[in-house]
Write a structure and sequence with these properties.
single chain; about 300 residues; Arc Repressor Mutant, subunit A; 15 helices
Length: about 300
């Protein structure tokens, strides 16, 4: 298969953003770590800002520097170390991935797409990111920031479509540099640019090095016609109730009384609903005599 190359019109975008990245790359610790460190960062960064991940990622890697070291401890240990990072199912899936890596892949994070996709909690984006950032492979990494930059710069759209289309994939693949090292560098550059400059709500167009090539700017920066998606309120939500119940369990090394646990939340029905969902997700286990605990297996 012939290597993808950006068109002559798009080459200035690639070179400009790579130069911008050389000058503005944040010194994030997972940019100079092991493949396992990269995988851990990708799990933690799912739907979570960098600033919330930074205080958790370092201690996690100090405690569990390899997949085998995490696999040797319990899911409960992982959930406690995850703390209030949010979306705790990720901690359980990361632990399950560590077990699989240890048992099936000899303790080394795999580098192929198919093997990465076999890991619990690893989808298309995470597999592509690990291949690019852990192994320096040619890999088209498409997160929300990347998609927004490309939608604006190439298509003149204020935001990408709700779901990735075949046309979007093909356009992105044609833009990615073919040389593996340059490809992974470009993935980091366009992602960083979307996070810091070409942001969703207040893009810093005055600081943009590709304003002259940006189709969205040439069109007068039209506003999105898509209806605004309102983010669900966290306060008073089932998600907050789940987080509260998990926090109570994290703070004890023993089991707790189920009735006492649900009574610690303000709404009895919501607490029961939240606890049932935690049990269904395997983040909490039921024990004899009406007690519950974090999973030790």
């Amino acid at each position: 298969m012939a290597a993808h190359r950006p068109s002559r019109a798009e080459e200035p975008i690639v070179s400009a953003l790579l130069a911008w990245f050389d000058a503005h790359e944040r010194p994030l610790p997972w940019r100079s770590t092991t493949p396992w460190g990269v995988l851990v960062s990708e799990f933690m960064l799912q739907q979570t800002p960098v600033q919330r991940v930074l205080p958790v990622w370092g201690p996690w890697l100090e405690r569990w520097p390899t997949p085998a070291s995490l696999a040797a401890d319990s899911v409960a240990d992982a959930l406690r170390a995850w703390g209030r990072l949010g979306y705790p199912r990720r901690a359980g899936r990361l632990h399950a991935s560590a077990v699989m890596i240890t048992e099936r892949f000899g303790g080394a994070v795999p580098s192929s797409t198919d093997e990465l996709l076999a890991l619990p909690g690893v989808g298309e984006y995470t597999a592509a990111a690990v291949r690019a950032f852990a192994f320096g492979q040619h890999s088209v990494v498409m997160d929300t920031n990347v998609r927004r930059v490309l939608a604006r710069a190439l298509d003149g759209s204020p935001a990408p479509a709700p779901h990735i289309t075949a046309g979007e994939r093909g356009r992105a693949a044609a833009l990615w540099p073919s040389e593996p090292g340059q490809s992974s560098r470009w993935s980091g550059a366009v992602m960083e640019f979307g996070a810091l400059v070409c942001t969703a709500r207040r893009p810093s167009c005055d600081a943009c090095p590709i304003t002259g090539e940006c189709s969205w700017t040439r069109l007068g920066q039209p506003a999105s016609t898509a209806p605004l998606r309102r983010q669900a309120e966290y306060v008073g939500s089932d998600r907050q109730a789940r987080g509260h119940l998990l926090a109570v369990l994290r703070d004890t090394s023993a089991s707790v009384d189920r009735a006492g646990l649900t009574a610690s939340w303000t709404d009895d029905l919501q607490a029961e609903r939240a606890l049932r969902s935690l049990l269904e997700d395997g983040l909490v286990v039921a024990l004899p005599r009406g007690r519950v605990a974090l999973p030790e297996g």
